[in-house]
Every structure is written in structure tokens, then in C-alpha cells.
Amino acid sequence: MLRSALFSALAVLALLPYAGAQKGLTCKDGRCEKVIYGTAPVASRLRVNAHGPVTLEGGSAPRLIYTVTVSVSARSEAEARRWLQQYTVRVVSQGSTTVFTAPGGPVMTAVSLKTPRMSAVEISTSDGAVEANGVDGPLEVDSGAGALTVDRVRGDCKLTTGGGDVRVGQIGGALRCSTGAGHITVRTVRGEAVLETNGGDIVAGQAGGQVHATTGGGGVHIGTAGGPVTATSGGGEIIVEKANGIVTVRNMAGPVQVWSSAGVRCDSGSGGIRVSNISGPMRVSTTMGSILANLLGSRLADSYLATGNGDITVLIPSNVGVLIQAQDNMRIVSEFRELAIRRQGQRVIAEGPLNGGGPLLQISGMGGTIFLKRQ
Question: Residue 32, by phi and psi: left (phi above 0), alpha (psi -120 to 50) or beta?
Fold first, then answer.
């Protein structure tokens, strides 16, 4: 009979939220604060609901260890104390998921969590910075506004903030991150990377798959991509160092550089463009700015270079054969004697094979000079 009663009591306790200890309240100038801390068992998956900054360190504790700093501003200290005395943290189990909730309302919270190794984590906060490290599976973070910092995530990662910088270390899967305004910095992503900001620079060191980078205004710098790259900016410098696929660039204003890729499609409103080591077709145009195309190491397909106002310089090594079709309103300067240059009406025309001929290279200039140089 005694054993049965004991088991019944334990069963009831298992259904209750885990209560944490509390430090005393501290108040100053109508603002009060208290700290809640405690531990609880945790399932393999964790969902966090908060109303302020959140910090999570996975694989750092044998069970869930939490510290919650709760603060509130009220018309009087008595009212602030009343709000805090009623405040509780909830930790409940829902199947394979543990749900940790630090409610909002009139209070703001700062949550710090240490957990065992987690197979999946979701963090949602109405407002505040989020830092999450050491997740063995997918991670999803959503903040109304605040900086996001993540590292050592073995699965896919989705990061969303209404405004704030996004800093990413190592991601073992695909990455998708979006910020209303702020810089995005990524070190290593094993899969595809989709990076979006309404205003701010985007820097990605290494991605194992394709990269999509879009900023309303700011620079884009992609180190190495294992697939195609699409980079779009409302204004700023765009650099793609190496892509195992075609690079597509759209820039309203600012210079563009592509150092190595399997092809390039570039459209710029204004700004110089430099391309090199292109193994595929080039479709490069700018309304205002110069173009430099270095064909060293290139295995070209049919290509097109055009500017509305600026010079076009093409560096052609002896082992790269091309068929030139060039025209310009001003002049064409060639280091290749075999290339015939003539004037036709208001245009200067140069046509012919170089180094034995090869893919077609069309060059069109309006307000500058076309230079064809030996490399």
C-alpha cells in the first residue's frame, strides 16, 4: 500500500513543470530583477521560447541547466515586485521534445542554457540576441530583432532575425539565414548557403554547395563555393574567388571581381568588372565602367563583353585561341598584327582568329578603348 502511494506521488510530480531556485529580488529606480536557476531532464530535441536574449551551449552538461535573469520596469517598485513574484519558468516534455518557456508579457528575460548533446534545437525569441553552439543536428533560430551567432552545428541551419548581424562558424549541412538589416559572416558551410540581408555586407569563406547571396546595399565576398554562385547587391563591391559552377552577378553600383569559375554572367549598373580563369561562357556588361578579362588558364566558350562607357581590356595568352569580333565608337588597340582593324561608318571594327581561332569572343565598347593584349 505504501509503495503504491509512493508511485502515485512520483507520477504526479513527473507531470509538473520543473521548478527552479530563485535569488532574491533587487530593485533600483523602479526596475526590478531576479535570477531563476535550475536543472531538469531533457529529451533528444529541445524547443526554446523566450522574450529576450538566449545563449545555448550544447554538449556541455549531463542534463538541462538553466539560468534566467528576469527584469521589469513598472510605475512603482511594489508593482515590479508583484510581477516578478508571479513569474515562473516552464520546462515540459512533449514526446521526444523538451519545451523550455521563459514567458514574456511585461517582463524581459535573458536565458542561458547548458544541455547534453542535442539531435535538434529550435529557438524562438520575440526580441534579443541569440548565441547557440554545439548542436548535433538541425538548428532553427528566429528572433524579432537581435544579433545571431552560431557555431558547431552538424545539421542544417536556418537563422532569421528582424535586424542584427549574423555570424556563423561551422555548419555541417545547408545554411539559410536572413536579417532585416545587418552584416552576414560565414566561415564554413558543408552544403548550400542562402544568405539574405536588406542592408549590410555578406562574407562567406567556404561553402560545399551553391551559394545565393543577396543584399539591398553592401559588399559580397565569396571565398570558395562547391557549386554555382548568385550574388546580388543594390550597391557595393562583389568578389567571388572560386566557384565550381557559373557565377551570376547583378550589381546596381560597384566593382565586380570573379577570379575563377565555370562561367560568368555579370550585369552591372556602374562599376568596373574583372574576370579571370573562366572555364565556360562569359556574358559581361556594365552601363558605366571598364572591363578587364584575363584569359590565362581559361577554357572559353562563346562569350560577350560590353560597356556603355569605359575601356575593355582582354589579356590573351598564346595557348588560348579565340575568334574576335570587336567594335567600338572610339578606337581599338591590338598587339596582334594578324587581326584586321577597319573603320565602318562611326564604328571601329576588328575581326579575325587569334592563336589559331576558337570560341567566339564578341566585344562592344561605346565610350572608351578596346585593348587586345598578349599575356
Answer: beta
